[in-house]
């Protein structure tokens, strides 16, 4: 979703690992899109929603990470609990600022209804665990936000705590509601023959896993991949939500999973993730790097990738088709874009995370070698390339600055999840309590 906004940018990360692709990556982790929001009746410019308002400038925390970090290695465990969980330092020792705590508290408050109701796939928490913090957050004022986190939540480390963070943003591209000269790249809505299957209905050990495909006779098969769709494989089975001007920009709109279309009449149309074709997401940056398509010294940021695509005789079509994943959109009205939880995401506050390792809605603190990524965040989104413990995609809002920051984000460091007081002790048998478990 915007969640799929998973950055049109993910800089070196996009090049090396693929970005968050607010699309829900592969067939095994397809997210459930939130209910459609009524679309505006005109193309008049949308008011800038608060979710896109930049938050406080990130400041390198007092707990500075070493300048040289080892490579991030995704753990082999399937969940956070299997990776191992231990108590971290006291919250005050992390070095969060009051400004970022205030923004994180607002995002946490928004996420609370889902935190309490939804099953936590990570195995770290139960809905009831969050009730004290959520009850307090509902009535907490705008003062002393740091005290809220210190009083109700405790830092815990999942696995080694070694973190890797990329960035994503809400792109703005040229588009039109109707096909016209210069606007001939379709931005498709959900196809009528795309089928979602909840595997948990068939086997208990598959709970939470979903696949997508196409019924062919009496068999469910793979849905057409990007190359086939671009060649007309879905025909008229998918509505065209809008028309883009540039195929490369539309491709990165899909990578992000959400965006703003600048219409010829000066209006703005917001489109968001509706669903995805169920195919595995492939980061084309890594694909290009592995094939030696970058000249020595050529930038492998998102901007560098786009520049290289434009040098290809086919406009980069063959390279983009290496990513078989294809995202379908719907028009959004009101505040947005929406994350995987169905709530508006907040620039410089929301991160995408793997729900098997991070409870969606949980706050977290990052201490990174890229100063802007350091600080308090809230996990409100997911992404096709965001897999494993301590793997995050930071959201930066919309506009030129957001695009630049997200496109250059590739940070390594340490992560602490902020979970209800007593979580670490409970997960470790209750011996000694959380304070005793801290190093």
Automatic annotation (TrEMBL):
Gene3D superfamilies: Barwin-like endoglucanases, RlpA-like domain
Signal peptide annotation: 1-20
GO molecular function terms noted in the UniProt entry: hydrolase activity, hydrolyzing O-glycosyl compounds; peptidoglycan lytic transglycosylase activity
Keywords: Cell wall biogenesis/degradation, Lyase, Signal
Catalytic reactions of this protein: Exolytic cleavage of the (1->4)-beta-glycosidic linkage between N-acetylmuramic acid (MurNAc) and N-acetylglucosamine (GlcNAc) residues in peptidoglycan, from either the reducing or the non-reducing ends of the peptidoglycan chains, with concomitant formation of a 1,6-anhydrobond in the MurNAc residue
EC numbers, comma separated: 4.2.2.n1
Protein name, entry field: peptidoglycan lytic exotransglycosylase
Species this chain originates from: Sphingomonas prati
This protein's GO CC annotations: outer membrane
Pfam family, one: MltA
Nucleus among keywords: no
UniProt cross-references to CDD domains, sorted A to Z: mlta_B, mltA_like_LT_A
Lytic transglycosylase MltA domain ranges (all copies): 172-330
SUPFAM superfamilies xref list: Barwin-like endoglucanases
Biased composition (Low complexity): 29-54
Annotated GO biological process: cell wall organization; peptidoglycan catabolic process; peptidoglycan turnover
Disordered as annotated region, ranges: 27-58
